[in-house]
Amino acid sequence: MYYIYMLRCKDNTIYTGITVDIKRRMEEHFSKNEKCAKYTYTHNAKKLEAVWQTENKSLASKLEYAIKKLTKAKKEELIRNKKIEDIFSDNEKIDITKYLLV
Q: What pTM does this model have?
């Protein structure tokens, strides 16, 4: 399984990533160890906002890429309602039935 996640940083920015081990990845982000993302190292991860699960890396990468292209307002909306179908219903490249909210 692969997880797509959104983190809020202390400066109120949002970081999006993928992982196979959500617990380990959060420990890396929050402890700022050597495997932490450069972005969250400098922006200080504050809170895990949303997590979705999918069956393979290809689907996870597609969703991660699509989320990263969203405006800040759309990312905030996604965090509020956790419904990817509301955000991606017009995007034919994202099959929203393949993602489960964790």
A: 0.84
